[in-house]
Amino acid sequence: MTTEQSPYRVLIGKPGLDGHDRGAKFIARALRDEGFEVIYTGIRRTAAEIAATAIQEDVDVVGLSSLSGAHLRLFPEVVQELKNRGGADIPVLGGGVIPDEDIELLLKKGMNAIFTSGTPAATIIQSFTTASQQHRDHDAQK
Amino acid sequence: MTPKSDTLLAGLKNQDPRAIGRAISAVENNSHEAVALLSALDRDRIHHVLVLGITGPPGAGKSTLTSSLIRTLRHQKKRVGIIAVDPSSPISGGAILGDRIRMMDHALDPDVVVRSMATRGRLGGLCASAGATVRIMAASGCEVVLIETVGVGQSEMDIVRLADITLMVLAPGFGDDIQAMKAGLLEVADFLVVNKSDTQGAEALCMDMEQIFSAKEEKSGIKRVLQTVATENSGVEELLDSVHSFSLYITDNGIKEKRRDQALNAETLDWVIEMLRPRLIQALEKTPGKNDPRLRAEQLIKTLKLQ
Fold it and tell me: A32: distance to nearest CA of chain B, Å?
């Protein structure tokens, strides 16, 4: 029996050809400082690689970053790849340079939350915490 | 047996990545299913798996060498498990587990099972989790399991001792770090891998190490100081050949069995501490705290009725 909750595990990854990883690394460090275990996969990953890694590492949440404009294709692709691998229950959060009109579209395509460059770090961390806890609760019910 | 552990065990047999990931979390978090799960694992596979510890100072190229070892082992059609250990922050308890970056080439290979593990900087538990993870990987068909960890700090050293064979990775230009590690790790290392051997100072480092290792070599006749350039896959096949010969050598003369017994003892002790920890903390909070710590500890143990 666990007496204290074990740390949330999250994956932070950058899908596609975009190599600007400052944001991803900033979030990774911020999450670490809040007690998360962050699996960082680095830049230029395919959606399939990110999903396969998330499954292997049994993460609570996947966080994606994209600043190249390819989010409409790449973010939902990760959601789909997770589904294909039996990980439909793992919430996917995304952030980056994302126009307002794309946000609703991404949420419709199964993304859990979307952050833009103006979002305060505390809001992002709160979303990761909530999504992780929901994933754990969902797991416990099974 | 709980229904969940049943599903996980079936998944392990089918080498289902989700089940493997779940099973490892179950033991790492010491949840309900852990006991039922661990007691039902395939013992024969666990007996035959080869566990390699890979350690060394930060920046020596452990992750790159690990990736290179994976590549070579996959050429040999072996299913490989990797446990990549990184330290937790002592302040927040969080961790950034970045060893996978160098291993992403293998992300889509179903026969490469990677698990990142944080030390969780606490008393007990890491050895226990890692040992159990080795067995879960073995039960899911992994023939070789690599445990990769930074070779500084007690918990990291303990974890390396779970391995049947330990490789210490060094690179030229690490002078002082190596000095610091000599006392502890060079003693437990079976092989010394001089990585980045195409850079300046490699030869001198090799000669130094050969001197230290000459006594070990004499007994088995197997070369213990080897050179690699992990980024180019060079020297890795030779390294694995030597490891293989050494594996046969330690199996034949009973060293492997002795090491496994020691590892089991270390893990058992670790589980005991892990399982007692909540009770210890509870008792500590109840015992008034002005006495000398040594005295307090004795009182605490008495209240737990362990003696």
Answer: 4
